[in-house]
Amino acid sequence: MTDIALHPEQIKLSLAAALGDKATNVSVALGEVTVTVRASDYVAAMQILRDAPDCKFEQLLDLCGMDYSTYREVGREGPRFGVVSHLLSVTLNQRVRVMVMCPDDDFPVVASVNDLWNSANWYEREAFDLFGIVFEGHNDLRRILTDYGFIGHPFRKDFPLSGHVEMRYDAERARVIYEPVSIEPREITPRIVREDHYGGLH
Hints:
Number of strands: 9
CATH topology: Beta Polymerase, domain 2
Order of helices and strands: HEEHEEEEHEEE
CATH superfamily: NADH:ubiquinone oxidoreductase Nqo5 subunit
Radius of gyration: 22 Å
Low-confidence stretches: none
Distance between the termini: 56 Å
CATH architecture: 2-Layer Sandwich
Strand content: 25-35%
Oligomer: single chain
CATH class: Alpha Beta
Largest sheet: 5 strands, mixed
């Protein structure tokens, strides 16, 4: 283990050399290194990042789904869904963010990395539950946060903000029941009260 952290530009160069054509882009922004890979190279690239001598990312700290659908409003084109992972090398005292896009917007699929880091198990289940991203090769891909009969994926940007069904426990029936619910939309305008010269402003 080293106590000296490499400069992000040095990490970028060593990761680019280790990954070769498995990486479509290696960049530094705000002091953080980001590696972008194709879905077809995802597992191979992640294995290199775990095992290569200049990488040694022993820990997967986080993995989450992303919905980039609203990026089209600001002129960014490309696939809608992606997966972002954060890796840590305790041995070399370095971190990296890895991005991979799902090629098919209608059925977003990427390979599972659970065989490389078992910490990916619940993270991938969460991304499946909330975004509908399928992790091919995951041996127990099922919902983890929403109810078993839940319909849809609540972190997708087109998911409705207000629901139509309420789930609650009924003590008399001794089970969970579903009931229709009507939520009337309303606007709440905050009332702001400021005294004269509030905060020293004139």
